[in-house]
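step 3/5: co-fold with heme C
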Amino acid sequence: MIRASQFFPVDAPRSAAWWQRAVSTVASVAAVLIVLQGLAASAAAQTASPHRKTPLRTVAAHTVVSKPAATPASSSRWAPVTITEKNATSHAPFEAGDCSICHQNSDPANPGPVKTSGNDLCMGCHDDFKQILSRKYPHPPSQKNCLSCHNPHNSNHPKLLLEEAGTLCTSCHKSIHDTVQNAKVKHDALTNDRQCANCHNPHGANVEHLLVQLPMQLCLDCHGKDNVLDHNGKKLTNMKALLAANPNHHGPIAGDDCSACHQTHGGDNFRLLTNNYPSAFYAEWDAKNYALCFGCHDEKAFTSPETTELTQFRDGSRNLHYVHTNKNDMGRTCRACHEVHASTQDHHIRESVPYGSKGWPLKINYTKTPTGGSCSRTCHATKTYNNSSKDAAAKP
Ligand code: HEC
Ligand code: HEC
Ligand code: HEC
Ligand code: HEC
Ligand code: HEC
Ligand code: HEC
Ligand code: HEC
Ligand code: HEC
Ligand code: HEC
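step 4/5: write tokens
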């Protein structure tokens, strides 16, 4: 195996021509960075993506810095490196030992400038990248310079990457760096396996945001298993199975938008939620605790004891949403009655409730009636509500 040090000791003397070329490389990289800066500015001027099917979601403006924070002043970033890591990679043409495959000279001690400048050198062999970069959403640094991310010779990281994948990406994507760094709830999807590349194609993609698949499919690929554990060792619901078994999908999910409620890159709320939602079965009433739901639903339906229009979950004018949720200590959270992803019943009413610390399934036995509905042998004996008039049908 060819090691860099064999061919180019770090302190070997370099010719004047060598340094001239090195300077011109720095100059051309600077030009690329100016172009990238322009792109970043125009992207920042855009607002939230127009394809959103659901309202009220704010997409944080993202800052992209064009210059990776860790770029050293010299072009030595691309010199062959000394291999120290076990997941190191070496480029096949470099392994072949003939530097003149890419450089003007075959002498490893003085390979001289490369034969073809820019991405054309790479495309000469990786011609499939012409197609990749002509996809609907090409990644600007890949169009400009493959060497923004790859060492052309070898690397201590997989796929000839200049740095460990996550670090490389967040060196330009500062806002994602900050999100990941500061998040109280972290998402292992970003640190497992191929890291950012689990979901993004670093070169180009046909799906918005460089995603390797349609976003919901992406989530369900990993969340389509029974053995995904959260950070407390609790088994997470197999979402793919849940959605398949429950045809009545909640609005945003019917719109294929998991991100309407979850922050993929990490966040501060329970279950990576985009806003507050209580984590337990009971919670003291405070509208702020339900900011997630009230981003799309009217909180007044939960704060008025009497109403004939704000909610259908009422008996006459007695607001049963208020009765159940609006309590000082043991207010029932929405999960007591609703399954927020998908259900078989109307109004996203769940079949059973995970009750107590063991999550024992307590049947709700909800039945829809022509004038309302009823629940039987559950948290209480059978009770029926009538929302067809201003008068109560059965006293709860
Ligand atoms: C697959 C193509 C390719 C092969 C093969 C290759 N190089 Fe390079 N090399 C490059 C590119 C691209 C650059 C960086 C661009 C530039 O400097 O213009 C580079 C730059 C270098 C640099 C300069 C880093 C600096 O400080 O400026 C050294 C040293 C180097 N190569 C050594 C070698 C040696 C030794 C071999 C043969 C064992 C070799 N290269 C084979 C593509 C290649
Ligand atoms: C002379 C042909 C040739 C040139 C020029 C060339 N490559 Fe490659 N490259 C290969 C071959 C062969 C492989 C290994 C086979 C494969 O995985 O397709 C490879 C693999 C790679 C890999 C994957 C490495 C891995 O561990 O899986 C990367 C990344 C890569 N090349 C980047 C580049 C970049 C960037 C350039 C331009 C600086 C470049 N290549 C120029 C032939 C070339
Ligand atoms: C923004 C950073 C970035 C740029 C710029 C970039 N790549 Fe990559 N490249 C990556 C990452 C990250 C991977 C590993 C992807 C993965 O794990 O699936 C990769 C993987 C590859 C592979 C291996 C693919 C495979 O399936 O194993 C090749 C070949 C490659 N890149 C070539 C190129 C070429 C050619 C260019 C320029 C046209 C380029 N890259 C520009 C980040 C980049
Ligand atoms: C689990 C899948 C997944 C992983 C892993 C992931 N992302 Fe994303 N990313 C997404 C999705 C989905 C979007 C689309 C916007 C949204 O729905 O939040 C996105 C959007 C983006 C955007 C554009 C919108 C914005 O918020 O600025 C950038 C930039 C980005 N991701 C960078 C990264 C980086 C860097 C990493 C690695 C540290 C990464 N992503 C890891 C799924 C992922
Ligand atoms: C050299 C700087 C640089 C590096 C390194 C880099 N990017 Fe980018 N990236 C950009 C620029 C510039 C844009 C275009 C501006 C924009 O759309 O935000 C961009 C755009 C994106 C987008 C689309 C953003 C959107 O709003 O749709 C995603 C996703 C993304 N990059 C992910 C990654 C991932 C993943 C990596 C690591 C493999 C990475 N980037 C590495 C500079 C970089
Ligand atoms: C590459 C695999 C992968 C992908 C893709 C993925 N996840 Fe995850 N996700 C995990 C793993 C592993 C865990 C468990 C460890 C953890 O909590 O991070 C997890 C945990 C979660 C959790 C629970 C977090 C907690 O600790 O409370 C939520 C919510 C979640 N993912 C939502 C999503 C959404 C939404 C998407 C799509 C945008 C998605 N995931 C895509 C692997 C993935
Ligand atoms: C309308 C908002 C909303 C949407 C859209 C949404 N989720 Fe959730 N998700 C939640 C809430 C709320 C919880 C917490 C549920 C609970 O603990 O009662 C949750 C919990 C989760 C969990 C943890 C499950 C567990 O067993 O504790 C995963 C995984 C998850 N969601 C994945 C997804 C995926 C994948 C999608 C897209 C198919 C998605 N979510 C769409 C609101 C949503
Ligand atoms: C991103 C917007 C959004 C968020 C956030 C959201 N919903 Fe919804 N919700 C909808 C849409 C759109 C509908 C109408 C389509 C449907 O029936 O699913 C709906 C319908 C419902 C329904 C059924 C109404 C009926 O009478 O059939 C219930 C129950 C519900 N949501 C509960 C919740 C709960 C509980 C939360 C918080 C955990 C929540 N929603 C968060 C958008 C949202
Ligand atoms: C005690 C059970 C229960 C709890 C707790 C509960 N709901 Fe409901 N909810 C219902 C029932 C039953 C309906 C169906 C009413 C009808 O149309 O007959 C309903 C209907 C809805 C609707 C449809 C519009 C309406 O009000 O008629 C939305 C939206 C909704 N609930 C959201 C929520 C949110 C958000 C929470 C938590 C803050 C919550 N629910 C808590 C039982 C409950």
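step 5/5: annotate
The chain is about 25% helix and 10% strand.
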